[in-house]
Amino acid sequence: MTAVEVPTAIPTPASRTDHLLRRLLRNPLAVISLLFLALVVLIAIIGPFIAPYNPNPANLQSILEPPSPEHLLGTDTAGRDVFSRLLVATQITVAAAALAVVTAMIFGVVTGLIAGYYQGWFDNVASWVTSLVMALPAIVILLAARAVLGPSVWISMFIFGVVLAPAYFRLVYTMVSSVRTELYVDAARVSGLSDLRIIGRHVLSVVRAPIIIQTAIVAIIAIAIQSGLEFLGLGDPAIPTWGGMLQDAFTKIYVAPILMLWPSLAIALTSIALMLLANAMRDVLERTVVVRRKRRRAVTTRTGSVAAVTTAASVTDLGDEVDIVTLEGEPIRHDDDEQASARSADVILRVKDLRVGYGQSDGSTTEVVHGVSLDIRKGEVHGLIGESGSGKSQTAFAVLGLLPKGGSVTGGSIEYEGIRLENGSDADYRGIRGRRIAYIPQEPMSNLDQSFTIGSQLTEPLRVGLGMSKAEARDKALSLLERVGIPNPVRTFKAYPFEVSGGMAQRVLIAGAVSTDPDLIIADEPTTALDVTVQAEVLDLLRDLQAERHMAMLLVTHNFGVVADLCDRVTVMQSGLFVETGPVRAIFQRPEHPYTKSLLAAILDEGPARPPLAPAGTAPQGANS
Amino acid sequence: MSESLLTVDDLVVEYPGKGFRAKPFQALKDVSIDIKPGETLGLVGESGSGKTTLGRAVLGLAPVTGGKITYDGKDISHLHRKERRALSSEIQVVFQDPYSSLNPSLTIEQILAEPLQARGVASSTAKTRVRDLLDQVGLPSDARSRLPREFSGGQRQRIAIARALALDPKLIVCDEPVSALDLSTQERVLDLFIEIQERTGVAYLFITHDLAVVRHISHRVAVMFRGEIVENGDGDQVTSAPVHPYTQRLFMAAPVPDPDKQEVRRVERRALLDAETTAA
């Protein structure tokens, strides 16, 4: 009954709803539905005035007449004009449905807003009452109400509205409770806005569009239930409604089957129009949401993907961006020093003139990596450093063959021990990715599946990739967990990812990455999400493992401290190009490229600490002191 | 006048525990700090140490279970919404995430004018003020009619700073305001903070996990660990010669951006940790 399909919580910015109607009009089904519904509403308003006959008095002379010029749709069992009854019934049916919808909306939206925004005791009470109402069988309540209060369509629709209110409550409640934790709502509270203003300005705009969709669905249910009640003969026989007409026609279905057609058509077409409209609106809204999520994800994970690139163009004129751009030429190369040449010279990964681009909706391609070349030698740690949007993660993902949707290698080559990998299919990467080349991600938590234990996620690649038995894989996984410094390996093995801390999760992922004894590890900001003390431990672990297993590592980071700690060689990346590359000491001590210099100059560590505040009077402090 | 602008005495913040009759979780245990007018107090700690909770308690966004928060001689620990709103021109905030702290559907002008309108400032005055604010944070005035999504992280953080400045507050709680920014942007935004402070005499409670940042901006530094302040002193002393073992461990853990110095620090850190484990 009230198992209404609740649209998923979609935070929809208000400005989008202004365009909503315009975009809706581009959908032909939505236009037809809107026109039909407008017609229904028009009839509901003017129907009684244009009806050619009085819909109620019986006329025994003209029972069950077929359609004729006098009676366009014929007459019914009591000789009443069907067309007139249909026009008048539209008004009552639509008004009754509207009553149910408005009642449900007032109860549901208001309580949902209050419960979601203030939470506390009201939330508990409202949620409890909602669950109770949802558990009640609506039809039984309506029957009981009719027995006690009489057969009034208005009373039963009001009660039905109350029964439907949870559909709104649930929707508004979930959306409001997610919006209220947004920082801009906190900021508005600190700015001194009243609660009413915050709800009106920041909260309501988000829930507005989903409420419209929900309303279309609730209206269908209201019309269906109301017609159903009338059809069962539980309505007020004195008032013509679609359901009542249907019931009347049903008694003569063998004599005049066509009488069934008109009220059925009215009910069905109206419901279909509402449903199509709701679907069209959801499509329009969801398309906006996809774009928005993508942008947010791109920004938060700093993968510098399409969105970051496309937005960058619009803001460069506003300052804040580093202006030193060299778009042509080879990166500055530093010669190997003692420490760097101590490493072996065998190249295991060779990237040449790599270009990465993203296909745009208009068919063009936006290039984010503009031809970079990189050699990684056996057992060396190569740091790739740059700011967000510089393309460093894109380069790493291209090597892994894991570019986000729409991205592809548009030029150059990636060669791993003689095997060409650029734009490789899953088959090309089989036996390489996850075995010879492993990956350590930035956010450990989102890279573990929350619904499987850590143990099963660690042993699966061992069993599938290396063909180990269950017991072997378990032993190996446990020894790896111990190796990466997890205090109680057996307990962690059995634990689910949400039961361990971020630092532990990253250790688990490192254990997983080294489990297949890879030659190359690609680590994308492996410590960025961790606390500084945990970062130090993870860096120690990575260094020890790297030395112990003689693995090569491509370390993508924006932190110079991490580079200084781990790397043998460093490449500095800016705007999709390598600007400088060389042994770590050369880059830190003798940077040549202006961009590298500016990055190093921005490091705060070496600067002097700010002195204590001088007592007022001895130093100029400005207006307020 | 070395009177404190904000004093926090033995503050306790508890959150109800999960489950029936569970013990409440103490996010802050008897925390005391004070900030003078025009001063920056840096608050360092790792995630879960309670530093953000302290900032939110000062802003009235976290429940005060025990202790007292005094602002300008007035107890503000249990204010009603109405009294709290009156404080909005005194205490303001800049949040960490420049992406969720600005309503995506409002233009920059609407965002910046919001606190002014809540105070009943006429819209023409508000317009002039918005232009002035954008100028103060180094953004062109044509930014007014744009939406937040058209700006980069650093620019959004400038907008958030402008919003905080709109009512001329005396104290701004800065909750990790530069953590989400790139290195060079971070430096510029920090310099903007310092420049504004020197010009207007606003005080900052500057919450961060980044030790380099805290050293750069703070007159004094307080270190938080598991809901308690373990060390509190002048910026230079705390960041160069920390006394508390946790502070020492914290500062040792941060890698130095210099391969040779980092090698030395790494050895020192291991020695310190070994010494601690043998002592324990």
The number of helical segments of chain A is 22
**What is the CATH homology-level superfamily of the largest domain in chain A?**
MetI-like
Residue windows where pLDDT falls under 50 for at least 5 positions of chain A = 1-17, 288-326, 617-625
Assembly of the depicted chains: heterodimer
Give the helices and strands, then pairings.
The complex is a heterodimer of chains A (625) and B (280).
Chain A: H1 14-24, H2 28-50, H3 82-118, H4 120-135, H5 138-149, H6 153-179, H7 183-190, H8 195-231, H9 242-250, H10 258-300, H11 306-315, E1 332-333, H12 338-341, E2 347-359, E3 365-377, E4 381-385, H13 392-400, E5 407-416, E6 419-420, H14 426-429, E7 437-440, H15 454-465, H16 470-483, H17 489-494, H18 502-514, E8 520-524, H19 532-549, E9 552-557, H20 560-566, E10 569-574, E11 577-583, H21 584-589, H22 594-601
Parallel strand pairs in A: 1-11, 4-9, 4-10, 7-8, 8-9
Antiparallel strand pairs in A: 2-3, 2-5, 5-6, 10-11
Helix pairs in contact in A: 1-10, 2-3, 2-10, 3-4, 3-6, 3-8, 4-6, 5-6, 6-8, 7-8, 8-9, 8-10, 9-10, 15-16, 15-18, 16-18, 18-19
Chain B: E1 6-15, E2 25-35, E3 40-44, H1 51-58, E4 66-71, E5 74-75, H2 81-86, E6 91-94, H3 108-118, H4 123-136, H5 153-165, E7 171-175, H6 183-200, E8 203-208, H7 211-217, E9 220-225, E10 228-234, H8 235-240, H9 245-253, H10 259-279
Parallel strand pairs in B: 3-8, 3-9, 6-7, 7-8
Antiparallel strand pairs in B: 1-2, 1-4, 4-5, 9-10
Helix pairs in contact in B: 3-4, 3-5, 4-5, 5-6
